[in-house]
């Protein structure tokens, strides 16, 4: 013991973690905005497993971190730290990062792990064959090949510099939650590359247009900002948001989305509209919707709640090409107010729904302000959970708008955050993906003559040659 | 002053959670309260969510009480719904309200962390920090979780450095602070109680830590965990301002904390690193699409809100030492009565930084900046050093009037600056005026943010809080009030602490100023990106 020489006088113990402040913050974020409390530190406390268990048992979830020369290896344990000479299985997150380079990435995986404490060592072994053993008295660390491979480490066995154990506060005691939090970043990357690779159906258009409609304050503009933020990798504000007596958004706005990586525009656009209000001559006119759907309304059109659009307003858009039309409509609703929508609002929404069907446009619902957004998707982040899809609100929306549950999407917009959260990004991307699928379905469903080539009198896109005809056909169908 | 405290069991919390987003700040949840509280007749209160081992609860109280983190337990008792077990739930509750009940409860396991969470209120922790210095109290032991056993307390606390043990009786919070922590030698020991009025200390002198936890006839103070009692001699009771009482006091809970420095070397190093990253990012900032060389930021706000101070603070951070170029004062007439645009030189002489801060006359009810002048400024007509006249706005006849402003002369982002301590005391006229200005901005598609200054002088806020200012209770409450008053989205409200009286730069303040500036500049980029292509 390094303290032996000081016996008889005051020991000035100072328990301070070796993690840098940034590393601590990033790890807390990785585990879902947890907070860390250092319980055991090998260079201050006795170097034996007994001391570890004395300090760390009955504390709830813990995180054991071992510092090597260049790297840091850690295991987060959801269950209580085991007592001396006992073992237990727990959901564990194994992770590693390079010292002082945590921002370049953390390798992490979530595994069911057997944790065992005997008189000389702390052993962790996962069912998939990863093994990590800490020998406190020898300050030794053993990692098997599988750990080194899976966590992309460079060392095999080594003396460690320090071993620390933290209590982890503020997380949900739920294996699924941990799994989602820890793997959210990886899934975010996957979704991102899928969306980057997306091409509209049969290349009929170069960009899919998604129209957002919904009551005032339901989060349409916030969703635009959230999507932009998720792709940019930082919080952005382009659409003005906030709250006031009436809708903040009064213009029709078309937003293209830029990719952080290659700065290119992505093959879809979000079209933001004025909020709907209960009263008749307030908010967006429902009569405007068919014109918007058909692509007659130009970007930055100033909505007038009292007077619907008359086609003669626009010289341009008599029969707009397919690329200018809306390909998918998202009904944006605040999940907390779905059940309390007024009859007038429901009637307006239903009317819009009918227009959407008439125009042959894809349709989804987007529920915002979902508080338990970490519970929307299952543990593998591929499907919505039954808990969420069977919510009253979801069923109500399904019945009200006749939208299949698979197309009732749930997100939590960035409205009060100061930082991005990978899991929120995942939900936003998943919602976008479903919207694009709905748009593709609608494009695929277009009558054949709509997609065949023609004179292309309105053509200003190299992809499509038939929009002039198409517009006319559609117009005839509707009149 | 109406105060209500409602305690809900997990089931009810589950239902409540459906109504209120869990990631929202306490104040946001206020919006959902009417649903829960309509039966009580409470309408206009602030709510806070507390988690405790029993589940969770939320309290409703007036603003002043919320700021102190205080709640009252004895009112609204009838509303306490006691739910014996999951099985019996169906019978106790109105089925229509609890249709989703079972599902939700299963989906919402209680936070494991609730078990190890201190019972100290925010206010009590503040008293402790005021007395013992800026400390972070790390909970190591909690008797209700780790058993009322002296042995367990010792296991957790031995060799942890400065340690504090707190016991809770029905009425009092009594604690003992061990300067050198639990070890085998005598350590300097301070007893204290925390009451409504604050902390009453009593120095015990050097003591063996262990002796405080065993029965000794001659001892003035000891805690017997196994018996759940604390014994205090009558002399010490007097010093601690406790009522004299013979015999032992029963305790409900005992907690032990390690007392870490809130702002130790490690954190300071981290913050200095973060600041230098931010500085680099801002020096390398490029206005969107290279449409302009410098983005122009207009600061608007009431007189004395700290507009010029913010300019000076930004200049100081980039210069590396405190500077006072923009004249500051809180003269009733708004000391900056000229329109000033400040370009900031970077330290290494590589020319001006890619942004300009524009300081204007303060807003007030009648005098102050003319609303029409704002319009001219936004469009870029107003020249630097223009002398404002609150009676009439600038006209095109003014000799320096900029007749054909370019994109570079226009304002790209507006920042509303307020003093966080006093924005809620502004007159209705001024609030209405500011709201109208905001509406005009929205109409013209100009992005805007709010910047609340003087956060360090907010009640209860001390320097250590600036580290994680957005998660501080009083700040959250204030942000919520501001959000409701002016309608800004919560993430559009920034807080800073300007350099007013300091002689030396401070990394924590730098961090706040730079992060705010970064948000402002990226918001300006959002505006530039949003411009129609033909401009």
From TrEMBL, chain A:
It comes from Rattus norvegicus. Its main location: cytoplasm. Gene3D superfamilies: P-loop containing nucleotide triphosphate hydrolases (3.40.50.300). GO terms for cellular component: cytoplasm. Residues 450-479 are annotated as: Disordered. This is Interferon-induced protein 44-like. It is found in: Cytoplasm. The keyword NAD does not apply. The lineage of its organism: Eukaryota, Metazoa, Chordata, Craniata, Vertebrata.
UniProtKB/TrEMBL annotation, chain B:
SUPFAM superfamilies: P-loop containing nucleoside triphosphate hydrolases. Signal peptide: none annotated. Residues 114-260 form the TLDc domain. It comes from the Eukaryota. Pfam families: TLD. PANTHER family: INTERFERON-INDUCED PROTEIN 44. Belongs to the IFI44 family. This is Interferon-induced protein 44. It comes from Rattus norvegicus (Rat).
């Amino acid at each position: 013991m390094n303290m032996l020489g000081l016996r008889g006088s005051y020991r000035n113990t100072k328990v301070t973690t070796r993690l840098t402040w940034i590393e601590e913050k990033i790890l807390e974020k990785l585990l879902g905005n947890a907070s860390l409390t250092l319980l055991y530190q090998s260079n201050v406390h006795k170097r034996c497993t007994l001391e570890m268990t004395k300090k760390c048992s009955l504390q709830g979830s813990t995180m054991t971190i071992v510092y090597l020369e260049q790297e840091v290896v850690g295991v987060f344990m959801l269950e209580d730290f085991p007592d001396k000479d006992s073992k237990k299985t727990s959901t564990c997150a194994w992770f590693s990062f390079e010292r002082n380079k945590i921002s370049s990435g953390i390798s992490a995986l979530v595994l069911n792990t057997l944790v065992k404490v005997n008189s000389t060592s702390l052993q962790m072994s996962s069912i998939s064959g990863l093994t990590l053993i800490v020998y406190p008295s020898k300050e030794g660390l053993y990692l098997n090949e599988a750990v080194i491979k899976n966590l992309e480490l460079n060392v095999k066995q080594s003396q460690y510099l320090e071993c620390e154990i933290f209590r982890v506060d503020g997380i949900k005691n739920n294996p699924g939650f941990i799994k989602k939090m820890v793997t959210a970043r990886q899934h975010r990357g996957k979704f991102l590359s899928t969306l980057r690779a997306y091409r509209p159906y049969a290349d009929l258009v170069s960009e899919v247009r998604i129209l957002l409609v919904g009551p005032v304050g339901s989060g349409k503009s916030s969703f635009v900002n959230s999507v932009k933020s998720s792709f940019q990798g930082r919080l952005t504000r382009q659409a003005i948001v906030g709250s006031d007596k009436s809708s903040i958004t009064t213009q029709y706005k078309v937003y293209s989305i830029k990719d952080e990586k290659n700065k290119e525009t992505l093959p879809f656009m979000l079209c933001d509209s004025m909020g709907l209000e209960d009263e008749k001559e307030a908010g967006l006119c429902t009569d405007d919707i068919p014109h918007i759907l058909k692509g007659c309304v130009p970007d930055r059109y100033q909505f007038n709640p009292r007077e619907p659009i008359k086609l003669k307003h626009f010289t341009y858009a008599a029969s707009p090409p397919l690329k200018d039309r809306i390909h998918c409509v998202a009904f944006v609703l605040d999940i907390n107010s779905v059940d309390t929508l007024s009859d007038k609002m429901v009637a307006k929404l239903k009317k819009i729904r009918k227009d959407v069907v008439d125009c042959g446009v894809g349709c989804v619902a987007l529920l915002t302000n979902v508080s338990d957004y970490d519970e929307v998707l299952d543990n593998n982040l591929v499907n919505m959970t039954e808990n969420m899809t069977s919510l009253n609100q979801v069923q109500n929306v399904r019945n009200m708008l006749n939208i299949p549950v698979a197309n009732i999407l749930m997100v939590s917009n960035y409205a009060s955050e100061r930082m991005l959260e990978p899991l929120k990004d995942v939900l936003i991307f998943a919602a976008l993906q479903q919207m694009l699928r709905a748009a593709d379905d609608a494009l695929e469903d277009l009558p054949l003559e709509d997609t065949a080539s023609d004179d292309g009198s309105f053509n200003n896109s190299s992809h499509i040659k038939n929009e002039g005809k198409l517009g006319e056909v559609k117009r005839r169908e509707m009149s | 002053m109406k105060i209500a405290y409602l305690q809900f069991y997990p089931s009810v919390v589950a239902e409540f959670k459906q109504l209120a987003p869990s990631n929202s700040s306490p104040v946001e949840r206020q919006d959902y309260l009417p649903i829960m509280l309509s039966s009580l007749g409470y309408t206009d209160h602030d709510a806070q969510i507390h988690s405790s081992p029993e589940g969770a609860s939320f309290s409703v109280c007036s603003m002043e009480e919320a700021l102190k983190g205080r709640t009252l337990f004895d009112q609204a008792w009838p509303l306490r719904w006691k739910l014996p077990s999951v099985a019996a739930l169906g019978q106790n509750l109105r089925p229509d309200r609890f249709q989703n009940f079972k599902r939700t409860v299963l989906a919402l396991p209680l936070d494991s962390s609730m078990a190890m969470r201190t019972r100290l209120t925010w206010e009590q922790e503040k008293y402790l920090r005021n007395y013992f210095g800026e400390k972070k109290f790390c909970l190591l032991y909690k008797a209700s979780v780790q058993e009322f056993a002296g042995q367990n307390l010792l296991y957790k606390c031995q060799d942890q450095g400065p340690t504090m043990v707190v016991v809770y009786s029905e009425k009092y919070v009594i604690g003992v602070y061990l300067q050198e922590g639990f070890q085998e030698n005598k350590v300097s020991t301070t007893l204290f109680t925390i009451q409504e009025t604050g902390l009453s200390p009593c120095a015990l002198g050097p003591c063996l830590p262990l002796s405080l936890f065993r029965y000794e006839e001659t001892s003035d103070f000891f805690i017997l965990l196994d018996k759940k009692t604390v014994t205090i001699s009558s002399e010490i009771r007097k010093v601690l301002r406790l009522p004299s009482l013979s015999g032992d006091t029963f305790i409900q809970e005992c907690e032990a904390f390690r007392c870490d420095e809130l702002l130790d070397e490690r954190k300071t190093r981290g913050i200095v690193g973060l600041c230098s990253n931010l500085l680099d990012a801002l020096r390398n900032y490029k206005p969107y699409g290279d449409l302009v060389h410098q983005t122009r930021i207009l600061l608007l706000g009431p007189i004395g809100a700290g507009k010029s101070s913010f300019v000076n603070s930004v200049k100081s951070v980039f210069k590396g030492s405190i500077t006072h170029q923009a004249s500051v004062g809180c003269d009733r007439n708004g000391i900056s009565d000229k329109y000033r645009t400040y370009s900031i030189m970077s330290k290494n002489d590589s020319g001006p930084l890619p942004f300009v801060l524009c300081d204007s006359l303060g807003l007030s009810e009648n005098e102050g900046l003319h609303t029409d002048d704002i319009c001219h400024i936004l469009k870029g007509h107003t020249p630097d050093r223009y002398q404002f006249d609150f009676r009439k706005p600038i006209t095109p006849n003014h000799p320096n009037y900029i007749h054909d402003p370019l994109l570079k002369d226009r304002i790209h982002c507006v920042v509303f600056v307020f003093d966080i301590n006093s924005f809620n005391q502004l007159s209705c006229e001024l609030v209405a005026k500011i709201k109208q200005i905001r509406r005009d901005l929205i109409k013209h598609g100009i992005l805007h943010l709010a910047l609340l200054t003087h956060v360090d002088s907010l009640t209860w806020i001390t320097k250590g809080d600036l580290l994680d200012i957005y998660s501080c209770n009083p700040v959250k409450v204030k942000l919520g009030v501001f959000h409701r008053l002016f309608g800004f989205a919560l993430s559009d409200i920034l807080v800073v602490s300007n350099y007013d009286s300091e002689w030396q730069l401070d990394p924590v303040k730098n961090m706040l100023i730079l992060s705010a500036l970064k948000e402002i500049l990226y918001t300006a980029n959002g505006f530039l990106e949003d411009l129609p292509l033909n401009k």
